[in-house]
Amino acid sequence: xxxxxxxxxxxxxxxxxxxxxxxxxxxxxxxxxxxxxxxxxxxxxxxxxxxxxxxxxxxxxxxxxxxxxxxxxxxxxxxxxxxxx
Length: 85
Hints:
Elements: E1 3-10, E2 15-20, H1 23-31, E3 44-52, H2 55-68, H3 71-81
Antiparallel strand pairs: 1-2, 1-3
């Protein structure tokens, strides 16, 4: 099964980075408030994805992105790698 790293963006310009095996289900969960990390800050749009053959690889990439701790890095990623949705 393929694991997806995803980046969401809300209407205020905030980003959220996560990992899932079912991107449509997870996006729905974020938008209906089932995710504590994003509850009350939506609606969220899917703006970027990367696929990985294993959850471990996807989690490693998620950690790498989150370590940057900068909105500017995510915007650079979207600009230079494209909004892959």
